[in-house]
Amino acid sequence: MNMQSRVFRRLAMSLVAATVLSTVTVVTAREPFTKDELKAMDEKLTASAKRGYDMWYGARADMSSNGLACANCHPDGAATNPQTFPKYMPQTDRVMAFRDMVNWCIENPQVGKALDVSSADMVALESYAFYLHRGVAIDTGLQTRQTAGPTPKSARGLNVKGTGIGFDK
Amino acid sequence: MADRIDRNRRQLLALTGKAGVTTLTAQAIGVNLGLVGVAAAQGKVEPFRFAIISDPHLYSGKDHVFDKQLEDAVSQVNALAKQPDFVLVTGDVAHQGEKDQMEKGKRILSALKAPLRSIPGEHDWYLDMGETWRASFGTETWSFDHKGVHFIGLNSILVPDFWTSKGLTPAQRRDWFMPLNSPVPGLWGCGEQQREWLKKDVAAVAPTTPVVIFTHSPLWDYYPRWNFQVSDSKEIRQILGKFTAVTAFHGHVHHTVYNKIGNLTSIGTMSTSWPWPYPPISLPFPEYQQNRADPANTSDGMGSAAIDLDAAGKAFVQYQPFAESLPPRLKNGFKA
Protein backbone atom coordinates (compact mmCIF):
# COMPACT_ATOMS: atom_id res chain seq x y z
CA MET A 1 0.00 0.00 0.00
CA ASN A 2 1.51 3.36 -1.03
CA MET A 3 1.40 6.62 0.88
CA GLN A 4 -1.67 7.90 -1.03
CA SER A 5 -3.64 4.79 -0.28
CA ARG A 6 -2.76 4.98 3.42
CA VAL A 7 -3.97 8.60 3.57
CA PHE A 8 -7.27 7.70 1.89
CA ARG A 9 -7.73 4.78 4.26
CA ARG A 10 -7.18 6.96 7.32
CA LEU A 11 -9.59 9.56 5.97
CA ALA A 12 -12.23 6.91 5.38
CA MET A 13 -11.83 5.48 8.88
CA SER A 14 -12.05 8.96 10.38
CA LEU A 15 -15.24 9.59 8.43
CA VAL A 16 -16.80 6.36 9.71
CA ALA A 17 -15.77 7.17 13.24
CA ALA A 18 -17.19 10.65 12.94
CA THR A 19 -20.45 9.28 11.62
CA VAL A 20 -20.72 6.79 14.47
CA LEU A 21 -19.94 9.47 17.02
CA SER A 22 -22.43 11.76 15.38
CA THR A 23 -25.09 9.03 15.59
CA VAL A 24 -24.34 8.35 19.24
CA THR A 25 -24.55 12.04 19.92
CA VAL A 26 -28.02 12.14 18.37
CA VAL A 27 -29.19 9.13 20.41
CA THR A 28 -28.06 10.63 23.69
CA ALA A 29 -29.11 14.13 22.80
CA ARG A 30 -32.32 13.96 24.82
CA GLU A 31 -32.11 15.23 28.36
CA PRO A 32 -32.67 12.50 30.98
CA PHE A 33 -36.24 12.33 32.20
CA THR A 34 -36.82 14.60 35.14
CA LYS A 35 -38.24 13.32 38.40
CA ASP A 36 -41.54 15.00 37.58
CA GLU A 37 -41.67 13.33 34.16
CA LEU A 38 -40.90 9.94 35.67
CA LYS A 39 -43.54 10.49 38.34
CA ALA A 40 -46.11 11.39 35.71
CA MET A 41 -45.31 8.28 33.67
CA ASP A 42 -45.45 6.09 36.75
CA GLU A 43 -48.83 7.53 37.66
CA LYS A 44 -50.14 6.62 34.22
CA LEU A 45 -48.97 3.03 34.65
CA THR A 46 -50.35 2.82 38.18
CA ALA A 47 -53.71 4.10 36.98
CA SER A 48 -53.76 1.39 34.33
CA ALA A 49 -52.75 -1.29 36.86
CA LYS A 50 -55.45 -0.08 39.25
CA ARG A 51 -58.02 -0.37 36.49
CA GLY A 52 -56.64 -3.83 35.77
CA TYR A 53 -56.93 -4.79 39.43
CA ASP A 54 -60.57 -3.70 39.54
CA MET A 55 -61.33 -5.71 36.41
CA TRP A 56 -59.37 -8.68 37.77
CA TYR A 57 -61.76 -8.69 40.71
CA GLY A 58 -64.93 -8.41 38.63
CA ALA A 59 -65.50 -4.71 37.94
CA ARG A 60 -66.44 -5.19 34.29
CA ALA A 61 -69.72 -7.10 34.20
CA ASP A 62 -69.55 -8.26 30.58
CA MET A 63 -66.37 -10.24 31.30
CA SER A 64 -68.42 -12.88 33.14
CA SER A 65 -71.90 -14.31 33.04
CA ASN A 66 -71.49 -16.71 35.95
CA GLY A 67 -69.95 -14.53 38.63
CA LEU A 68 -66.41 -15.78 38.15
CA ALA A 69 -63.65 -13.21 37.88
CA CYS A 70 -59.94 -13.60 37.09
CA ALA A 71 -59.22 -13.48 40.82
CA ASN A 72 -61.32 -16.58 41.51
CA CYS A 73 -58.48 -18.73 40.24
CA HIS A 74 -55.64 -16.19 40.28
CA PRO A 75 -55.53 -14.18 43.52
CA ASP A 76 -52.56 -11.81 43.46
CA GLY A 77 -52.01 -12.98 39.89
CA ALA A 78 -51.00 -16.44 41.12
CA ALA A 79 -50.71 -19.18 38.48
CA THR A 80 -50.87 -16.71 35.60
CA ASN A 81 -47.14 -16.65 34.83
CA PRO A 82 -47.30 -13.83 32.26
CA GLN A 83 -43.52 -14.01 31.91
CA THR A 84 -43.89 -17.40 30.17
CA PHE A 85 -45.99 -16.07 27.28
CA PRO A 86 -46.10 -16.45 24.31
CA LYS A 87 -46.32 -20.22 24.68
CA TYR A 88 -48.13 -23.17 23.22
CA MET A 89 -51.44 -23.83 24.95
CA PRO A 90 -53.01 -27.26 24.49
CA GLN A 91 -56.59 -26.03 24.83
CA THR A 92 -56.28 -23.98 21.63
CA ASP A 93 -53.52 -25.99 19.93
CA ARG A 94 -51.56 -22.84 19.13
CA VAL A 95 -49.01 -20.44 20.53
CA MET A 96 -50.82 -17.76 22.50
CA ALA A 97 -49.91 -14.34 23.78
CA PHE A 98 -50.87 -13.47 27.35
CA ARG A 99 -53.74 -11.32 26.13
CA ASP A 100 -55.08 -14.25 24.09
CA MET A 101 -55.05 -16.35 27.24
CA VAL A 102 -56.90 -13.61 29.12
CA ASN A 103 -59.61 -13.68 26.48
CA TRP A 104 -59.70 -17.49 26.55
CA CYS A 105 -60.38 -17.38 30.29
CA ILE A 106 -63.05 -14.71 29.83
CA GLU A 107 -64.83 -16.74 27.16
CA ASN A 108 -64.53 -20.18 28.80
CA PRO A 109 -64.46 -20.38 32.61
CA GLN A 110 -66.10 -16.96 32.95
CA VAL A 111 -68.47 -17.39 29.99
CA GLY A 112 -68.12 -13.70 29.23
CA LYS A 113 -67.49 -11.41 26.28
CA ALA A 114 -63.88 -11.23 25.12
CA LEU A 115 -62.12 -7.87 25.23
CA ASP A 116 -60.80 -6.02 22.21
CA VAL A 117 -57.16 -7.09 22.33
CA SER A 118 -55.97 -3.57 21.56
CA SER A 119 -58.26 -1.85 24.07
CA ALA A 120 -57.12 0.14 27.08
CA ASP A 121 -58.93 -2.36 29.31
CA MET A 122 -56.89 -5.28 27.95
CA VAL A 123 -53.73 -3.24 28.51
CA ALA A 124 -54.98 -2.55 32.04
CA LEU A 125 -55.29 -6.28 32.78
CA GLU A 126 -51.80 -6.77 31.40
CA SER A 127 -50.51 -3.83 33.43
CA TYR A 128 -51.79 -5.43 36.63
CA ALA A 129 -50.55 -8.94 35.87
CA PHE A 130 -47.14 -7.87 34.61
CA TYR A 131 -46.68 -5.30 37.37
CA LEU A 132 -47.11 -8.07 39.94
CA HIS A 133 -44.45 -10.10 38.15
CA ARG A 134 -41.84 -7.37 37.72
CA GLY A 135 -38.41 -8.73 38.46
CA VAL A 136 -39.37 -12.24 37.37
CA ALA A 137 -37.18 -13.44 34.50
CA ILE A 138 -38.82 -13.71 31.09
CA ASP A 139 -39.00 -17.37 30.17
CA THR A 140 -41.04 -17.41 26.99
CA GLY A 141 -42.57 -20.73 26.05
CA LEU A 142 -42.04 -22.32 29.45
CA GLN A 143 -44.59 -24.99 30.26
CA THR A 144 -44.50 -25.60 33.96
CA ARG A 145 -46.59 -26.91 36.76
CA GLN A 146 -45.62 -23.95 38.86
CA THR A 147 -48.67 -22.59 40.60
CA ALA A 148 -47.42 -19.93 42.94
CA GLY A 149 -47.42 -16.35 41.81
CA PRO A 150 -45.26 -13.48 42.95
CA THR A 151 -44.70 -12.74 46.61
CA PRO A 152 -46.22 -9.39 47.51
CA LYS A 153 -44.31 -7.41 50.11
CA SER A 154 -47.09 -7.89 52.65
CA ALA A 155 -47.32 -11.63 52.04
CA ARG A 156 -46.59 -12.60 55.61
CA GLY A 157 -49.69 -10.85 56.82
CA LEU A 158 -52.65 -9.05 55.37
CA ASN A 159 -52.00 -5.44 54.62
CA VAL A 160 -54.67 -4.53 57.12
CA LYS A 161 -54.63 -0.81 56.44
CA GLY A 162 -54.82 -1.63 52.79
CA THR A 163 -53.95 0.26 49.68
CA GLY A 164 -57.32 -0.65 48.24
CA ILE A 165 -55.62 -1.52 45.00
CA GLY A 166 -54.52 -5.00 45.88
CA PHE A 167 -50.85 -4.75 45.13
CA ASP A 168 -47.89 -3.24 46.87
CA LYS A 169 -47.11 0.19 45.58
CA MET B 1 -58.08 -51.06 56.83
CA ALA B 2 -61.31 -49.77 55.42
CA ASP B 3 -62.35 -50.51 51.86
CA ARG B 4 -60.67 -48.44 49.21
CA ILE B 5 -62.93 -46.15 47.28
CA ASP B 6 -64.23 -47.41 43.99
CA ARG B 7 -62.88 -44.83 41.57
CA ASN B 8 -64.84 -46.06 38.61
CA ARG B 9 -65.33 -42.90 36.58
CA ARG B 10 -68.25 -44.37 34.64
CA GLN B 11 -70.05 -45.09 37.86
CA LEU B 12 -69.63 -41.48 38.88
CA LEU B 13 -70.81 -40.19 35.54
CA ALA B 14 -73.80 -42.49 35.64
CA LEU B 15 -74.75 -41.04 38.97
CA THR B 16 -74.01 -37.47 38.04
CA GLY B 17 -77.10 -35.40 37.67
CA LYS B 18 -79.30 -37.82 39.54
CA ALA B 19 -78.83 -36.04 42.84
CA GLY B 20 -82.15 -35.37 44.42
CA VAL B 21 -83.71 -38.70 43.54
CA THR B 22 -82.86 -40.39 46.78
CA THR B 23 -83.72 -37.64 49.20
CA LEU B 24 -84.32 -39.04 52.64
CA THR B 25 -86.49 -36.65 54.51
CA ALA B 26 -85.52 -38.14 57.86
CA GLN B 27 -81.97 -37.03 57.16
CA ALA B 28 -82.84 -33.47 56.31
CA ILE B 29 -80.19 -30.89 57.00
CA GLY B 30 -80.15 -29.46 60.47
CA VAL B 31 -81.93 -32.25 62.27
CA ASN B 32 -80.36 -33.65 65.40
CA LEU B 33 -78.03 -36.39 64.22
CA GLY B 34 -78.44 -38.47 67.36
CA LEU B 35 -74.77 -39.40 67.18
CA VAL B 36 -73.87 -38.76 70.78
CA GLY B 37 -72.44 -41.94 72.16
CA VAL B 38 -70.59 -43.25 75.16
CA ALA B 39 -67.68 -44.89 73.35
CA ALA B 40 -65.41 -41.86 73.80
CA ALA B 41 -65.36 -42.35 77.51
CA GLN B 42 -64.33 -45.95 76.97
CA GLY B 43 -61.25 -44.92 74.96
CA LYS B 44 -62.01 -47.31 72.13
CA VAL B 45 -62.93 -46.49 68.53
CA GLU B 46 -65.33 -48.51 66.45
CA PRO B 47 -63.98 -47.98 62.91
CA PHE B 48 -66.21 -45.93 60.65
CA ARG B 49 -66.20 -43.56 57.70
CA PHE B 50 -67.26 -39.95 57.29
CA ALA B 51 -67.13 -37.75 54.20
CA ILE B 52 -66.34 -34.10 53.52
CA ILE B 53 -67.82 -31.75 50.94
CA SER B 54 -66.36 -28.28 50.87
CA ASP B 55 -66.85 -24.80 49.43
CA PRO B 56 -69.76 -25.16 46.97
CA HIS B 57 -69.95 -21.33 46.51
CA LEU B 58 -73.39 -21.47 44.96
CA TYR B 59 -74.61 -18.46 42.97
CA SER B 60 -78.20 -17.41 42.37
CA GLY B 61 -80.06 -18.50 39.27
CA LYS B 62 -80.65 -21.78 37.54
CA ASP B 63 -78.18 -24.20 35.99
CA HIS B 64 -75.00 -22.56 37.23
CA VAL B 65 -71.97 -24.79 36.72
CA PHE B 66 -71.34 -24.88 40.49
CA ASP B 67 -74.80 -26.38 41.10
CA LYS B 68 -73.84 -29.33 38.93
CA GLN B 69 -70.47 -29.69 40.62
CA LEU B 70 -72.06 -29.84 44.09
CA GLU B 71 -74.52 -32.41 42.73
CA ASP B 72 -71.52 -34.39 41.46
CA ALA B 73 -69.95 -34.33 44.93
CA VAL B 74 -73.22 -35.52 46.48
CA SER B 75 -73.33 -38.32 43.91
CA GLN B 76 -69.73 -39.26 44.71
CA VAL B 77 -70.51 -39.59 48.40
CA ASN B 78 -73.76 -41.44 47.80
CA ALA B 79 -71.89 -43.86 45.52
CA LEU B 80 -69.41 -44.92 48.19
CA ALA B 81 -69.68 -48.67 48.68
CA LYS B 82 -69.18 -48.16 52.37
CA GLN B 83 -71.45 -45.30 53.28
CA PRO B 84 -70.22 -42.56 55.64
CA ASP B 85 -71.87 -42.24 59.03
CA PHE B 86 -72.21 -38.53 58.31
CA VAL B 87 -71.04 -35.84 55.89
CA LEU B 88 -69.27 -32.64 56.89
CA VAL B 89 -69.72 -29.50 54.80
CA THR B 90 -66.88 -27.19 55.73
CA GLY B 91 -68.43 -23.90 54.70
CA ASP B 92 -69.06 -21.40 51.90
CA VAL B 93 -72.25 -22.99 50.64
CA ALA B 94 -73.64 -19.65 49.39
CA HIS B 95 -71.18 -17.44 47.53
CA GLN B 96 -72.93 -14.21 48.48
CA GLY B 97 -74.83 -15.47 51.51
CA GLU B 98 -78.17 -14.91 49.78
CA LYS B 99 -81.23 -16.83 50.94
CA ASP B 100 -81.91 -18.44 47.56
CA GLN B 101 -78.28 -19.60 47.35
CA MET B 102 -78.46 -21.13 50.83
CA GLU B 103 -81.78 -22.82 50.08
CA LYS B 104 -80.38 -24.22 46.86
CA GLY B 105 -77.43 -25.65 48.77
CA LYS B 106 -79.72 -27.15 51.37
CA ARG B 107 -81.85 -28.71 48.64
CA ILE B 108 -78.90 -30.23 46.77
CA LEU B 109 -77.29 -31.51 49.97
CA SER B 110 -80.56 -33.03 51.13
CA ALA B 111 -79.95 -35.72 48.49
CA LEU B 112 -77.15 -37.14 50.64
CA LYS B 113 -77.97 -40.54 52.04
CA ALA B 114 -75.96 -39.82 55.17
CA PRO B 115 -76.78 -37.16 57.78
CA LEU B 116 -75.16 -33.76 57.41
CA ARG B 117 -73.15 -31.51 59.72
CA SER B 118 -71.89 -28.11 58.73
CA ILE B 119 -69.80 -25.13 59.77
CA PRO B 120 -69.95 -21.71 58.09
CA GLY B 121 -67.53 -19.93 55.80
CA GLU B 122 -67.13 -16.19 55.40
CA HIS B 123 -69.24 -16.18 52.23
CA ASP B 124 -72.15 -17.68 54.17
CA TRP B 125 -71.90 -15.29 57.05
CA TYR B 126 -71.46 -11.59 56.51
CA LEU B 127 -74.61 -10.60 54.63
CA ASP B 128 -76.77 -11.18 57.72
CA MET B 129 -74.22 -12.34 60.30
CA GLY B 130 -75.16 -15.99 59.91
CA GLU B 131 -78.94 -15.66 60.26
CA THR B 132 -79.77 -17.42 56.98
CA TRP B 133 -77.00 -19.98 57.45
CA ARG B 134 -78.26 -20.90 60.92
CA ALA B 135 -81.82 -21.24 59.61
CA SER B 136 -80.57 -23.76 57.05
CA PHE B 137 -77.80 -25.60 58.87
CA GLY B 138 -78.21 -25.07 62.62
CA THR B 139 -75.69 -23.91 65.18
CA GLU B 140 -72.15 -23.06 64.11
CA THR B 141 -70.37 -24.25 67.25
CA TRP B 142 -70.91 -27.84 68.21
CA SER B 143 -69.42 -31.11 69.38
CA PHE B 144 -70.54 -34.69 69.59
CA ASP B 145 -69.08 -38.08 70.38
CA HIS B 146 -69.36 -40.82 67.83
CA LYS B 147 -68.04 -44.37 68.10
CA GLY B 148 -65.22 -43.32 70.39
CA VAL B 149 -64.18 -40.09 68.68
CA HIS B 150 -64.86 -36.55 69.89
CA PHE B 151 -65.92 -34.29 66.99
CA ILE B 152 -65.82 -30.48 67.19
CA GLY B 153 -67.01 -27.80 64.79
CA LEU B 154 -66.02 -24.13 65.15
CA ASN B 155 -66.80 -20.92 63.32
CA SER B 156 -63.33 -19.71 62.31
CA ILE B 157 -64.24 -16.69 60.19
CA LEU B 158 -65.05 -14.09 62.85
CA VAL B 159 -63.51 -10.62 62.75
CA PRO B 160 -63.98 -7.55 64.95
CA ASP B 161 -66.65 -5.10 63.79
CA PHE B 162 -65.17 -2.96 61.03
CA TRP B 163 -68.49 -2.04 59.42
CA THR B 164 -70.45 -0.06 62.03
CA SER B 165 -68.04 2.85 62.24
CA LYS B 166 -67.89 2.98 58.44
CA GLY B 167 -71.68 2.90 58.15
CA LEU B 168 -71.58 -0.04 55.73
CA THR B 169 -74.74 -1.74 54.53
CA PRO B 170 -74.97 -5.52 55.01
CA ALA B 171 -74.19 -6.02 51.31
CA GLN B 172 -71.17 -3.70 51.51
CA ARG B 173 -69.93 -5.58 54.57
CA ARG B 174 -70.37 -8.89 52.74
CA ASP B 175 -68.63 -7.59 49.64
CA TRP B 176 -65.45 -6.85 51.57
CA PHE B 177 -65.13 -10.60 52.07
CA MET B 178 -65.39 -11.45 48.39
CA PRO B 179 -61.71 -11.06 47.40
CA LEU B 180 -59.43 -13.62 48.97
CA ASN B 181 -56.86 -10.92 49.72
CA SER B 182 -59.32 -8.25 50.79
CA PRO B 183 -57.41 -5.63 52.75
CA VAL B 184 -60.30 -4.42 54.94
CA PRO B 185 -61.80 -7.14 57.20
CA GLY B 186 -58.47 -8.24 58.66
CA LEU B 187 -57.44 -11.62 59.92
CA TRP B 188 -60.27 -13.81 61.06
CA GLY B 189 -60.43 -16.41 63.80
CA CYS B 190 -62.68 -18.17 66.33
CA GLY B 191 -62.65 -15.55 69.07
CA GLU B 192 -62.64 -15.64 72.84
CA GLN B 193 -66.25 -16.81 73.25
CA GLN B 194 -65.66 -19.98 71.26
CA ARG B 195 -62.30 -20.59 72.91
CA GLU B 196 -64.02 -20.50 76.32
CA TRP B 197 -66.68 -22.85 74.98
CA LEU B 198 -63.96 -25.17 73.69
CA LYS B 199 -62.17 -25.24 77.04
CA LYS B 200 -65.38 -26.33 78.75
CA ASP B 201 -66.25 -28.77 75.98
CA VAL B 202 -63.01 -30.74 76.21
CA ALA B 203 -62.54 -30.47 79.97
CA ALA B 204 -64.17 -33.82 80.65
CA VAL B 205 -62.89 -35.61 77.55
CA ALA B 206 -60.09 -38.08 78.26
CA PRO B 207 -56.69 -37.14 76.75
CA THR B 208 -56.51 -40.49 74.98
CA THR B 209 -59.76 -39.85 73.11
CA PRO B 210 -59.15 -39.17 69.40
CA VAL B 211 -60.34 -35.67 68.52
CA VAL B 212 -61.42 -34.51 65.06
CA ILE B 213 -62.01 -30.77 64.61
CA PHE B 214 -63.49 -28.86 61.67
CA THR B 215 -62.90 -25.22 60.83
CA HIS B 216 -63.42 -23.35 57.58
CA SER B 217 -59.86 -22.01 57.46
CA PRO B 218 -56.75 -23.93 58.53
CA LEU B 219 -55.71 -24.09 62.19
CA TRP B 220 -52.21 -22.91 61.37
CA ASP B 221 -50.54 -19.87 59.89
CA TYR B 222 -50.62 -21.05 56.26
CA TYR B 223 -50.86 -17.80 54.25
CA PRO B 224 -52.52 -14.93 56.11
CA ARG B 225 -52.61 -12.65 53.08
CA TRP B 226 -55.33 -14.93 51.71
CA ASN B 227 -56.78 -15.57 55.19
CA PHE B 228 -55.41 -19.11 55.01
CA GLN B 229 -55.21 -19.12 58.79
CA VAL B 230 -57.16 -18.86 62.04
CA SER B 231 -55.81 -15.86 63.93
CA ASP B 232 -56.15 -17.61 67.31
CA SER B 233 -55.10 -21.05 66.09
CA LYS B 234 -52.20 -21.13 68.53
CA GLU B 235 -54.55 -20.68 71.50
CA ILE B 236 -56.89 -23.34 70.10
CA ARG B 237 -54.01 -25.77 69.64
CA GLN B 238 -53.01 -25.09 73.25
CA ILE B 239 -56.53 -25.89 74.47
CA LEU B 240 -56.36 -29.15 72.53
CA GLY B 241 -52.77 -29.77 73.62
CA LYS B 242 -53.71 -32.36 76.26
CA PHE B 243 -54.90 -34.85 73.66
CA THR B 244 -52.70 -37.58 72.26
CA ALA B 245 -53.86 -36.89 68.71
CA VAL B 246 -56.02 -34.23 67.09
CA THR B 247 -56.96 -34.38 63.40
CA ALA B 248 -58.13 -31.09 61.92
CA PHE B 249 -59.97 -30.76 58.61
CA HIS B 250 -60.62 -27.48 56.83
CA GLY B 251 -61.94 -26.06 53.59
CA HIS B 252 -61.40 -22.49 52.33
CA VAL B 253 -58.09 -23.15 50.55
CA HIS B 254 -59.76 -25.15 47.75
CA HIS B 255 -56.84 -27.54 47.42
CA THR B 256 -55.13 -30.42 49.14
CA VAL B 257 -52.67 -29.41 51.82
CA TYR B 258 -51.18 -31.11 54.87
CA ASN B 259 -49.31 -30.08 57.98
CA LYS B 260 -48.38 -31.38 61.42
CA ILE B 261 -47.91 -29.11 64.42
CA GLY B 262 -47.36 -30.85 67.75
CA ASN B 263 -50.25 -33.25 68.33
CA LEU B 264 -52.36 -31.68 65.56
CA THR B 265 -52.50 -33.01 62.01
CA SER B 266 -54.12 -30.55 59.60
CA ILE B 267 -55.70 -31.59 56.30
CA GLY B 268 -57.15 -29.28 53.66
CA THR B 269 -59.84 -30.43 51.27
CA MET B 270 -60.66 -29.77 47.64
CA SER B 271 -63.65 -27.59 46.88
CA THR B 272 -66.55 -28.38 44.59
CA SER B 273 -66.42 -24.94 42.94
CA TRP B 274 -62.93 -23.98 41.72
CA PRO B 275 -59.33 -24.70 42.80
CA TRP B 276 -57.31 -21.91 44.42
CA PRO B 277 -53.65 -21.97 43.40
CA TYR B 278 -51.01 -22.59 46.04
CA PRO B 279 -49.63 -19.41 47.59
CA PRO B 280 -46.01 -18.35 47.01
CA ILE B 281 -44.53 -20.02 50.08
CA SER B 282 -42.70 -23.25 50.79
CA LEU B 283 -45.05 -25.85 52.19
CA PRO B 284 -43.86 -28.07 55.05
CA PHE B 285 -45.19 -31.16 53.24
CA PRO B 286 -45.15 -30.31 49.51
CA GLU B 287 -45.79 -33.91 48.53
CA TYR B 288 -49.43 -33.42 49.53
CA GLN B 289 -50.08 -30.83 46.81
CA GLN B 290 -52.57 -31.68 44.09
CA ASN B 291 -51.65 -31.20 40.45
CA ARG B 292 -52.03 -27.85 38.75
CA ALA B 293 -55.59 -27.80 37.44
CA ASP B 294 -56.09 -27.85 33.70
CA PRO B 295 -58.08 -24.68 32.95
CA ALA B 296 -59.58 -26.37 29.89
CA ASN B 297 -61.15 -29.04 32.08
CA THR B 298 -63.83 -27.43 34.21
CA SER B 299 -63.96 -30.52 36.45
CA ASP B 300 -60.26 -30.55 37.23
CA GLY B 301 -58.92 -29.71 40.67
CA MET B 302 -62.13 -30.29 42.60
CA GLY B 303 -63.91 -33.08 44.40
CA SER B 304 -64.88 -34.48 47.80
CA ALA B 305 -63.16 -36.65 50.39
CA ALA B 306 -63.83 -39.79 52.40
CA ILE B 307 -62.12 -40.41 55.73
CA ASP B 308 -61.91 -43.75 57.49
CA LEU B 309 -61.08 -43.80 61.17
CA ASP B 310 -59.49 -47.01 62.42
CA ALA B 311 -59.64 -48.62 65.87
CA ALA B 312 -56.86 -46.34 67.07
CA GLY B 313 -58.69 -43.27 65.80
CA LYS B 314 -56.15 -42.73 63.00
CA ALA B 315 -57.55 -41.22 59.83
CA PHE B 316 -57.09 -42.67 56.36
CA VAL B 317 -57.86 -39.89 53.88
CA GLN B 318 -59.05 -40.52 50.34
CA TYR B 319 -59.69 -37.51 48.13
CA GLN B 320 -62.28 -38.09 45.43
CA PRO B 321 -61.42 -35.75 42.54
CA PHE B 322 -63.86 -35.09 39.70
CA ALA B 323 -60.94 -35.44 37.25
CA GLU B 324 -57.40 -36.84 37.46
CA SER B 325 -56.12 -34.10 39.75
CA LEU B 326 -53.96 -36.07 42.15
CA PRO B 327 -50.26 -36.99 42.12
CA PRO B 328 -49.33 -40.62 42.91
CA ARG B 329 -48.73 -39.72 46.57
CA LEU B 330 -52.42 -38.90 47.04
CA LYS B 331 -54.14 -41.15 44.52
CA ASN B 332 -54.68 -44.14 46.75
CA GLY B 333 -55.21 -42.29 49.97
CA PHE B 334 -52.87 -41.67 52.88
CA LYS B 335 -52.67 -42.09 56.62
CA ALA B 336 -53.01 -38.75 58.37
Number of domains of chain A: 2
Question: What would CATH call the homologous superfamily of chain B?
Answer: Metallo-dependent phosphatases
Task: Give the overall pLDDT of chain A as a whole number.
Answer: 80
CATH topology of the largest domain in chain A: Cytochrome Bc1 Complex, Chain D, domain 2
The termini of chain B sit apart by 13 Å
Low-confidence stretches of chain B: 7-42
Shape, per Cα inertia axes of chain A:
extended
Q: What is the count of structural domains of chain B? A: 1
Question: Secondary-structure map with pairings?
Answer:
The complex is a heterodimer of chains A (169) and B (336).
Chain A: H1 3-27, H2 35-56, H3 70-73, E1 87-89, E2 94-96, H4 98-107, H5 120-132
Antiparallel strand pairs in A: 1-2
Helix pairs in contact in A: 2-5
Chain B: H1 9-15, H2 39-42, E1 48-53, H3 65-78, E2 87-89, H4 99-109, E3 116-118, H5 122-125, H6 131-137, E4 142-146, E5 149-153, H7 170-175, H8 191-203, E6 211-215, H9 233-239, E7 246-250, E8 257-261, E9 264-268, E10 303-309, E11 315-321, H10 328-331, E12 334-335
Parallel strand pairs in B: 1-2, 2-3, 5-6, 6-7, 7-9
Antiparallel strand pairs in B: 1-10, 4-5, 8-9, 10-11, 11-12
